[in-house]
Design a protein that fits this description.
Number of strands: 0
Largest sheet: none
Distance between the termini: 30 Å
Helix content: 55-70%
Radius of gyration: 16 Å
Number of helices: 6
Order of helices and strands: HHHHHH
Number of domains: 2
């Protein structure tokens, strides 16, 4: 795990450790990989390998599929949105502010969706760290 961790987040070991722990808590509710079962460890390795390669869906000829990337970002944004205990009006406001539309399903701009995912990750991390 530590080798993958260094490959995914090179340069700043403290940041890498923090992001790794947040990923464990977000995906498995655990602070350490030692607390995971065999199936969860396999899933963790898959998640980290996807993260290492950028998790980019590919077409049959190996090129990155734009539509698949949009769907992947929409799914991730919806998962993060569901993890936040915010009222629907607040969530729609954030989506509108970043994407220019009030529903994630209506946004097809990869940069805007990526910005939304990053914002939601930050809000979720802040809520997790403050215990709200």
């Amino acid at each position: 795990m530590h080798i993958l961790q260094k490959e995914i987040w090179p340069g700043d070991p403290e940041r890498a450790e923090r992001l790794y722990r947040e990923m464990l808590m977000f995906n498995f509710g655990e602070r350490s990989a030692a607390d995971l079962g065999e199936a969860e460890l396999e899933e963790l390795v898959r998640i980290m390998e996807d993260r290492k390669t950028g998790g980019r869906p590919r077409t049959a000829d190996g090129r990155r599929s734009r539509d698949a990337r949009v769907e992947e970002l929409r799914d991730l944004a919806n998962d993060l949105k569901n993890a936040l205990a915010w009222p629907e009006k607040r969530l729609r406001g954030l989506v509108y502010k970043i994407c220019g539309v009030s529903d994630i399903a209506w946004c097809s701009d990869i940069k805007k969706l990526d910005g939304l995912v990053k914002a939601l990750e930050n809000y979720l991390r802040d809520e997790f760290s403050t215990g709200d």
